[in-house]
């Protein structure tokens, strides 16, 4: 059996033994595990640890090995590790309380043209009203 102690864990979570054994048994998944970031490893570990039933945990371990073998870098349909700090850098997490809204993005990453603050909204209304 391949040595499992060489596989690193995540930023917050240690690599559980059952997941380590499954990763060590699959060469492709093991290589992918070593190639993803410490935060991505953390997501997989937390996803597996979050299972309440043994059967769910086993299924998630199987799916994690399968996903890593397919080149996926994060668990599918997982909102993220609840232990991860939210530092407000993402637009959807930011609210400065100064009347500004977070930047909205359209599909494909393009920034919307909508107003970003109450002042911008009022200015746009006054400009629009002066045109008519």
Automatic annotation (TrEMBL):
Pfam families: OmdA. Residues 72-132 are annotated as: Disordered. Residues 82-101 have a biased composition (Basic and acidic residues). This is Uncharacterized protein. It comes from Cephalotrichum gorgonifer.
